[in-house]
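Case study 2.
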Amino acid sequence: MSRPRLRHVALVVQDAAAAAAFYRETLQMEEFHQDPDGSRFMTDGYINLALIQHRLDGDVPTGFNHFGFEVPDVDSVADRMTQRGVARPVLRGGDRPFAEYRAIDPEGNWFDLSSHGFLPPGTAP
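Prediction:
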């Protein structure tokens, strides 16, 4: 891989289980991960779709949330970002096997950076 590739899209949904069933049954996506909060992670084998469970006590509305890029080297991308006056990406917490860093573009849109991709571990594109 010589340049970043868009590999991940995340939506905040009211019912992650129902949304996952829709994508599984109508578009034949595979569910590969479920968070304790009920969020579901789907893949078509190339791009993954995060269906983030909406929380009534949260501050994030339903709809589009963020996207993610697989990059050959997070540090070099982070250096280019800071040279453009954008905040350096920060390490994300949690135990998911993807999305190591959270970044923000000049317009305030969130995106993730990962050097190992967003598909389930052991899955080749």
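The chain is about 20% helix and 35% strand.
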